[in-house]
Amino acid sequence: MTKIEAPPERLATFRIVLGIFVTGYLLVRSPVFVELGHRSPGRFDAVGIFRVIGQPIPHPINSVVVAATIVAGALFTVGWRFRVTGPVFALGLLIVATHRSSWGQLLHFENLMTLHVIVVAFARSADAWSLDALRRAHTRVEVSGPHSPADRPPIDRYGHALHLAALTTVITYVIAGVAKLRYGGFEWMDGDTLRNHIAYSATRLELLGERRPPLAVLAVEHSVLLRPAGVASVAIELLAPLALLGGRWRNGWVIVAWLMHVGIFATMLVGFPSPLFLVAFAPMFALERVVLALRRRT
Amino acid sequence: MVTVQHDSTRGWQRRVSEMSARSRRGSVSTLLLAGFLLFPVLVDSDDFPLSTYPMYSSARGQEVSFVTAYGIDAAGESVALGIGTIGGTDDPLIATGELRSAIRLGQAADRCGEIASRVDPNDGITVVEVVTERHDVIEHTLDRSSIVERTVHATCRVES
User: Fold this and answer.
1) Which residue from B25, B88, B133 is facing A207, i.e. has the nearest CB?
2) ipTM for the whole complex
């Protein structure tokens, strides 16, 4: 199983990786988020927390919320006043991402990153490798001298947050697999459905005046290969809990899940950024060892 | 010496007690999280950020209806407009989702005007039309004749 014990540096590494990715994503996509403030309220179709509010965020408040969320994301990443900036970033991201999905089309590629940020924001994710940790270490040295390894906080404190983040990844895949069987039935695995989805994505893009995905024609022409691909994609999603076993099970599942996303992107131009950039899988690994190894080398 | 041992034992007991309390909290938070994430599946309700992830999950047939918009030039030829012009976005999901929603709500003419206002005057396009087209998607992807049905919802002029 995913180990509950983890050093503070492991959770800190995930905070930094997630923070860089989500803040970068918001920065790159900020024109799209800002543009929402200029839309007619008549087109607003509230989801999530906006069902309570019932109306869109007007311009210029929307632009301020987007900018503040990006700033909070940067502070989340460096771990400055994390007990405040962490939850502020999580709330800001929840607002801007929910706002974006509230215009008649639910977008499913921002769910996982939002859930991960919520998990990390409310954990002790800045106890190491953060400005907060630097400030605390500086204060401690001034008061009582250098600290010993015995002063380190208990290691099970940090593993829970990583375990929750990994569990979130796993459950979202299982739900996606269940959805295919629930809404598509076993037809999803006969290959024709996958072929039709690929052809549908290519046709939709072309009718909108865009280029078709690079491997769409190849996939449709060789649709006999799509039958095993259809079965494999459902199996990968339903078997996601294997990743929680760790070791080779986890590594094998992550590799095939990532290849599935690469395949989806190449044949349908549908990109799920968090798994494509491997951030969705980061809480399953001892990433701090990579950082420490790199440090030792330099 | 005895006092030190006593303190050490008490300290050890306190740490074990703290760890088991954290472990209980961890188990509760794991169950709560799993419950939250799985709740939409139980009630079959897609939302944000808790979702049933229904994208691309339905069994799709070969014939599909698409909403889109075309430009028509002075010679009467149909011209592709691009996602940015049609939807004011770079996301095909948003562009088609909003156009479909506008057609459903009887706002196709308003949306046609919006699209026309985004058309570059130098493109030679004089008219925009908002349509639903039914295509055989396999035939279309393989560059063969694919259109089955076509409905024009709105037509509007491009101001030069």
Assistant:
1) B133
2) 0.87
Mode of pairing for the β-strands spanning B125-136 and B78-80 = unpaired
Longest Cα–Cα distance of chain A, Å, equals: 72
What does the radius of gyration of chain A's CA atoms come to, in whole angstroms? 22
pLDDT for residue A152 is more than 70:
no
Residue segments in chain B with a per-residue pLDDT below the cut of 70:
1-10, 12, 15-16, 19
- What are the pLDDT digits (tens) for B2-12? 444 555 666 76
Determine the average pLDDT of the residues in A29-41: 90
Q: Of A107, A160, A203, which is closest to B137 when you measure between CB atoms?
A: A203
Contacts of B81 in chain A (CB under 8 A): 208-209
Q: How far apart are CA A9 and CA A110, in angstroms?
A: 26
CA angle B28/B34/B38 to nearest 5° reads 145
Shortest distance between the Cα of B73 and any Cα of chain A, in A, equals 15
Give me the residue from A35, A106, A193 closest to B60, CB to CB.
A193
- Ranges A35-49, A149-163, B80-94: which has the least confidence: A149-163
Does the beta-carbon distance from B60 to A35 stay under 8 Å?
A: no
What is A195-224 written as a DSSP string? Answer: HHHHHHHHHHHHHTT-PPPTTHHHHHHTGG
